[in-house]
Specification:
Blueprint: H1 10-33, E1 35-40, E2 45-50, E3 55-60, H2 72-108
Antiparallel strand pairs: 1-2, 2-3
Helix pairs in contact: 1-2
Length: 120
């Protein structure tokens, strides 16, 4: 509803849309440059992803590869599970960061649900 019952100011709406587009681009750039971590196995495996979800680093503590603790097959399977868990944790942290950065912009667009291309 427009106050006073008049027509919307198209120039003002266009300026608001352009500002929101710039804000969104800036937030996406910040996400691409921000790194978040996830870990598994009490820190034996750590994954680092960007806020946009790109895997940047994977660190495996040598203690995670103990050939005397189990068979090599079991060790490899456990290590694979730890890597998957660490990457999933890092991606969950990236999604939380996305919601923090992009959520307020989506609300400015009228809600934050059902907007194509946005992860929330």
């Amino acid at each position: 509803m427009i106050p006073g019952g008049g027509q919307p100011n198209m120039q003002q709406l266009l300026q608001q849309a352009q500002k929101m587009q710039q804000d969104l681009a800036r937030a996406q750039e910040e996400l691409a440059n921000t790194e978040v971590d996830g870990q598994a196995g009490g820190g034996l495996v750590r994954a680092t992803v960007t806020g946009s979800g790109e895997l940047r680093a994977l660190k495996i503590d040598p203690k995670a590869v103990d050939p005397e603790a189990a068979s090599l097959e079991e060790t490899a399977e456990t290590l694979a599970d730890l890597v998957v868990a660490a990457v999933q944790a890092a991606n969950q942290n990236a999604q939380t960061l996305q919601q923090q950065k992009l959520g307020p912009l989506a609300q400015g667009l009228g809600g934050g649900t059902g907007i194509p291309g946005l992860p929330f």
